[in-house]
UniProtKB/TrEMBL annotation:
CDD domains: SDR_c. Pfam families: adh_short. Belongs to the short-chain dehydrogenases/reductases (SDR) family. One of its GO terms (molecular function) is oxidoreductase activity, acting on the CH-OH group of donors, NAD or NADP as acceptor. Keywords: Oxidoreductase. The keyword Oxidoreductase applies. InterPro entries: NAD(P)-bd_dom_sf (IPR036291), Sc_DH/Rdtase_CS (IPR020904), SDR_fam (IPR002347). This is Short-chain dehydrogenase. It comes from the Bacteria.
Length: 271
């Protein structure tokens, strides 16, 4: 369907996880287009004027949304960007870490959409961007629970989009490949693994306001992955995986580089 146009100049945009990485790049790009950007983050000290939001808490997300509505009267665009990505052997991963991954990467989206979409539906217009991952389409050893969370994010986005397709409110999922942010710290990137920068993902997120496409891969050529995955025999796929070193999240992580990020996840899991 043709969704109501949202002009970026003057649009009110809420971005979670907006203090750094993809979120910061997205907030900066929206602001450069004239949008009024409201950043929510668990660590607001990283960004001026950011509001505290714990996306795993419906009450915290609701308070964030209420503050934005009180200040600006509406939310035209919600970018559900906050996410975590622990690495390691599936059986060895601590339950609290696994639970936090699902709470942030799946429940964060659910809480965000349930907090914002009722206001959008009343106005008959609005756009939600759920930042998923190509890990929601292809599996990566060492990322089992993260894979599960991103497969869920892709399916959730598609289902909510379809359920509300005639309301004027759209939902898009953005699926980046490996991104050069702290989530991938300590993991060797490149060497056959499609890798992008936060600015590339930001452009896709902002571009979705115009296109309103259901799924947007970054880079764009990965949009054909579903067909490739269905058509290529498993032995050939495994050979390709071996050639690009798909087990690097298990075998090649620089623990000293990644330690600080893993400590951040552990601290969040212990909250």
């Amino acid at each position: 369907m043709a969704y109501p146009t949202i002009a970026l100049d003057g649009a009110v945009v809420a971005v979670t996880g907006g203090a750094r990485g993809i979120g910061k790049a997205t907030a900066d790009l929206f602001a450069s287009k004239g949008a009024v950007v409201c950043i929510g983050d668990l660590d607001p000290a990283e960004a001026a004027d950011a509001l505290v939001v714990d996306v795993t808490s419906r009450a915290s997300f609701g308070a964030f949304v209420d503050t934005v509505l009180e200040r600006h009267g509406r939310i035209d665009i919600l970018v559900n960007n906050a996410g975590v990505m622990p690495l390691g052997d599936f059986l060895a991963e601590n339950d609290a870490i696994s639970r936090t991954t699902l709470d942030v990467n799946v429940w964060g989206l659910i809480h965000g959409m349930r907090a914002v979409m009722p206001h959008m539906l009343k106005r008959g217009r609005g756009h939600v961007v759920n930042v998923a991952s190509m890990a929601g389409k292809l599996v990566v050893p060492g990322l089992a629970v993260y894979n599960a969370s991103k497969f869920a994010a892709v399916g959730l986005s598609a289902a909510v989009r379809e359920e509300y397709r005639s309301t004027g409110v759209s939902v898009s999922a953005v699926l980046p490949s490996a991104v050069r942010t702290r989530l991938a710290s300590g993991v060797p990137l490149g060497r056959g693994l499609p890798t992008v920068d936060a600015d590339d993902v930001a452009r896709a997120i902002v571009g979705s306001v115009r296109s309103r496409r259901a799924e947007i891969t970054v880079p764009r050529y990965l949009a054909g992955w579903d067909l490739v995955n269905a058509a290529v025999p498993e032995p050939v796929m495994r050979l390709g995986r071996k050639l690009i070193g798909d087990r690097r999240a298990l075998t090649s992580v620089q623990d000293d580089v990644r330690a600080a990020y893993e400590e951040t996840i552990a601290a969040q899991a212990g909250r």
